[in-house]
UniProtKB/TrEMBL annotation:
Keywords: Cytoplasm, Nucleus. Component of the integrator complex, a multiprotein complex that terminates RNA polymerase II (Pol II) transcription in the promoter-proximal region of genes. The integrator complex provides a quality checkpoint during transcription elongation by driving premature transcription termination of transcripts that are unfavorably configured for transcriptional elongation: the complex terminates transcription by (1) catalyzing dephosphorylation of the C-terminal domain (CTD) of Pol II subunit Polr2A/Rbp1 and Spt5, and (2) degrading the exiting nascent RNA transcript via endonuclease activity. Belongs to the Integrator subunit 3 family. PANTHER family: INTEGRATOR COMPLEX SUBUNIT 3 (PTHR13587:SF7). One of its GO terms (cellular component) is cytoplasm. This is SOSS complex subunit A homolog. Residues 573-871 form the Ints3-like C-terminal domain. Residues 470-483 have a biased composition (Polar residues). Residues 470-504, 520-541 are annotated as: Disordered. It is found in: Cytoplasm; Nucleus.
Length: 877
């Protein structure tokens, strides 16, 4: 058959038939041969006779489906024959149709596309079960940002079906939500005069469905509000906004207002339904397979394929929301060289050519920040926003500047009456970002020299808490506890208030009449405020320290000149020698008052942070020179003070250390490294004497920063493993030796250890264990450690059992776990236990454990293997 004349699919000159198409056409040819010369009665008998024959039933079902899709004249008769044939309620047909739509819809010819809607309508009209999955797959093909005739015809056809069979639609709550979410999104694409009939029909249907089924709308959550903002200028939706803001009970007795929606997280299934399967597959490939640095040709192809028209720019928001809400990479992917999510989102933002679409894309990026609740929301939803800004500030500062500007303005304009809640959500986001070490701190971003003065003024005004002390950040505010206040009092506002007054940024984000205008967010009053304050607040990032001191003279006017001079010298040189001179001056000067001491400590902490090298401090060799160089930075001059006798430790320096820790979270593991190097150096200076790792110094450090020792140690090890794996494995043996009570059988430390290990690390660790230099496990409670290890990946379990074997842990200390292990699930553990049992003498307790195992199969291969091994051992005796 000529491939250019396929009835089902569109073929280009380079396309070949795939198995999907061959399956349908082969079934149809066989069916055609079977019914040639057969009258109606014989055909009926043939169909009835194949009901019990599974293979023939499936082939004829495919043939009739093919006939329905390719021949509109024969479709009615074919559908009737299909209902006679089926013995599964058309489940086989529906599943194959859903697969066809998901995999091949974009390649369907015009006739099959039209017939697919006819087929769907017949299935709904005849109340066929489980059609909802097919509907969901077809809805996904109604792409946003696409106003081509084919896509508009699909949207129009689906809308007619839902209007005609609304009673059927309303039986499925999830499908109602999906239909509302889909058509609410598509509405913004159909505002042109050529779509007036479709537009009016969509508005009427969506408004009616929302008002009648608002209980099904509530699970759509915050994404419903985002889409509703894009159509807020439509009169019918203005009225809906008024009811949502001022009379929520009118819509649904259980609805308490807009904040209930903003607090509800939207299911990723709704986010997914706004991307076609084809786009989703390509996006997943880009984020899962393309190496960072090699993405340009893929992005160029994507741009040419999906973003060629002005209308298609609105698809960017759908993509960003899907990436943020539905694609959460594993730890392995985060540590790999695959392109990260933030880089893809950065490309989507910077390549956008439409001002309104770009503003909506920015809102999509920060949308989860606005009402972020640390107790309920996922940090993966706010991570891309901060990383786009953080990684762009150096080489693409304009990207970071525009996003920071947007974040400042959206804080005030997204919901003026709920500004405090939005501000709390953004502060919660930043606090969580810092707590989880997504980035080390905010200062490279907020105090970058590449920010202009007006933006710096705005940042200082809106994020004053993050500026006032680099060592402190605002307390996390429980969003769920603050939502009972003034915002819900919107119910008492007059009906004359427009929805835009409450969500005023909608005028900025969506304005159909100014699509080509540059988007602005501030009014004249804002500009005057910024201009008037230019002279009041100084941008000290670009000024010499002496100038900054003059500007801040009211705070530091009584600080001794000698101390200021030392700070100035250290700020310029950032050398350890000048820092030690500064520390000497700080301890010898008269006591400062609280404000002055805070100022001095914060300034020193900032300079120390800037002096840190981005390179690893792990010594290339263990020579005296390399060891000394690894602790030559200024911060180690401060840490050295902790080794002094307690009576010599000056209070001003311990207070300084507290500020340094809060600005530089890595301080803890830098101290561990310093203690390790110091112990080695002392051992070499005192021949035949092994100097101990001074573990009490680290405990004293934990006391200074008011952090529980075990908790701080775990946090520092986590940072160390993330930032410098070599240093992590180098320091670890000393920690196991010094802090035995905490480290031995510690499941959290073991998880970090196993997650970072490779073959070389494993070799070195086992060498240390066999030489007696390292002990990680004891027999006590080892069974709990083994239970925890069952969740590890295969390679990690391989390493874990190698470590167990190296420790010579007696089998009787963990043999009680044998009955708990499942042959199908715990293959790694059972394999290693079997190898260990080969060298064990049989005992009553061991046999009891073996015979206590439950097996899903008639024979337990593990028990049989062990028993045979034991029998052979006994017979040899």
């Amino acid at each position: 058959m000529d491939i250019t004349k396929s009835k089902l699919f569109i073929h280009t000159i380079v396309d070949i038939r795939d198995d999907f198409e061959e399956k349908y056409e082969k079934a149809y040819r066989a069916y055609e041969d079977a019914i040639t010369g057969v009258d109606e009665k014989e055909l009926h008998e043939l169909l009835s006779g194949t009901i019990c024959k599974e293979t023939q039933h499936e082939e004829i079902s495919l043939a009739l489906t093919y006939l329905i899709l390719t021949d509109s004249n024969a479709a009615g008769k074919a559908y009737s024959d299909l209902t006679i044939l089926t013995h599964d309620g058309l489940a086989f047909v529906i599943n194959n149709l859903a697969m066809l739509v998901a995999e091949k819809y974009q390649r369907l010819n015009d006739v099959p596309r039209k017939q697919l809607l006819w087929f769907l309508k017949e299935l709904i009209k005849n109340q066929v079960l489980n059609v909802d999955n097919l509907v969901w797959n077809i809805l996904r093909q109604a792409s946003g940002g696409d106003i081509s005739p084919k896509n508009v015809a699909l949207v129009d056809g689906l809308l007619d079906i839902f209007i005609e069979h609304r009673s059927w639609l309303e039986k499925d709550q999830f499908l109602v939500g999906t239909v509302i979410y889909t058509f609410l999104r598509l509405l913004e694409d159909h505002n042109g005069p050529q779509f007036s009939h479709l537009y009016n029909k969509e508005v009427g249907f969506v408004i009616s469905l929302i008002r009648d089924r608002f209980a099904d709308v509530i699970p759509l959550g915050r994404e419903f509000v985002r889409l509703l903002q894009n159509v807020s200028r439509i009169p019918e939706f203005e009225c809906l906004w008024k009811d949502i803001l001022h009379n929520p009970k009118k819509l649904c007795p259980t609805f308490n207002g807009v904040m209930q929606l903003m607090q509800t997280k939207t299911s990723r299934r709704f986010l997914r339904c706004r991307l076609t399967p084809d786009v989703e597959r390509k996006l997943h490939f880009l984020i899962s397979n393309v190496k960072f640095g090699n993405q340009k040709r893929y992005q160029d192809w994507f741009q040419e394929k999906y973003f060629t028209t002005p209308e298609s720019q609105s698809l960017r928001s759908d993509l960003i929301r899907f990436i943020i809400g539905a694609i959460h990479p594993t730890n392995d992917m985060l540590c790999s060289d695959i392109i990260p999510r933030w880089a893809v989102i950065g490309w989507l933002l910077t390549s956008c050519t439409n001002a309104v679409a770009q503003a909506n894309a920015k809102l999509s990026l920060f949308y989860d920040w606005l009402f972020f609740d640390p107790l309920k929301d996922n940090i993966m939803n706010i991570e891309p926003g901060i990383l786009v800004m953080y990684h762009s500030i150096k080489n693409h500062p304009l990207v970071s500047c525009t996003l920071l500007d947007f974040l400042c303005r959206i804080m005030k304009h997204f919901h003026p009456k709920g500004e405090d809640r939005v501000r709390a959500g953004i502060y919660n986001s930043l606090r969580m970002i810092l707590d989880k070490q997504v980035i080390p701190n905010l200062f490279p971003l907020l105090e970058s020299s590449k920010l202009d003065r007006e933006l710096k003024l705005m940042l200082r005004e809106n994020f004053r808490e993050f500026f006032s002390s680099p060592s402190t950040t605002p307390t996390v505010i429980g969003t769920s506890q603050t939502l009972k206040g003034p915002l819900l009092e919107d119910d008492q506002q007059s009906e004359s208030d427009r929805p835009e007054d409450n969500f005023s940024h909608m005028e900025n984000v969506v304005n159909y009449n100014t699509l080509n205008d540059e988007l602005t967010f501030s009014d004249d009053e804002d500009e005057k405020k910024i201009n008037n304050s230019k002279d009041e607040v100084s941008d000290d990032d670009d000024l010499p320290l002496s100038k900054v001191l003059e500007l801040e003279k009211p705070i530091i006017q009584s600080i001794p000149e000698e101390l200021l001079s030392c700070m100035d010298v250290f700020s310029n040189s950032r050398s350890a020698e000048d820092f030690e001179s500064l520390l000497d001056e700080l301890t010898q000067t008269d006591p400062l008052n609280i404000d002055q001491e805070t100022y001095v400590n914060e300034r020193i902490a900032q300079i120390l942070h800037q002096s840190l090298s981005s390179r690893s401090i792990f010594p290339e060799s263990k020579s005296e020179e390399c060891l000394s160089e690894s602790i030559s930075g200024p911060i180690f001059s401060l840490l050295k003070i902790l080794l002094q006798p307690e009576e010599k430790r000056k209070i001003p320096l311990t207070n300084l250390l507290l500020h340094v820790h809060k600005l530089i979270p890595n301080t803890g593991y830098l101290l561990l490294h310093y203690l390790k190097v110091n112990a080695k150096q002392q051992s070499r200076r005192k021949e035949n004497v092994t100097s101990a790792f001074k573990g009490n110094v680290y405990k004293y450090y934990c006391a200074i920063i008011d952090s529980p020792f075990e908790e701080q140690l775990k946090k520092d090890l986590g940072l160390l493993e993330k930032n410098d794996t070599k240093l992590f494995f180098w320091i670890l043996p000393d920690l196991f030796k010094e802090y035995k009570s905490v480290m031995l059988n510690n499941m959290d430390v073991l998880a970090l250890f196993i997650g970072a290990i490779d073959a070389n690390n494993l070799r070195d660790v086992i060498f240390n264990i066999t030489q007696g230099k390292l002990i990680m496990f004891t027999s006590d409670d080892i069974i709990d450690v083994i239970r925890d290890s069952l969740e590890y990946e295969t390679f990690e379990q391989f390493c874990f059992w190698q470590l167990i074997q190296a420790h010579d842990i007696p089998l009787e200390s963990f043999q009680d776990i044998i009955p708990e292990l499942d042959t199908a699930v715990h293959a790694e553990a059972l394999t290693y236990i079997l190898l260990l049992l080969k060298n064990e003498q049989p005992s009553t307790e061991l046999v009891k454990c073996l015979l206590s195992r439950e097996s899903k199969n008639r024979a337990d291969a593990f028990v049989i293997s062990v028993l045979r091994c034991l029998v052979r051992k006994l017979t040899k005796k």
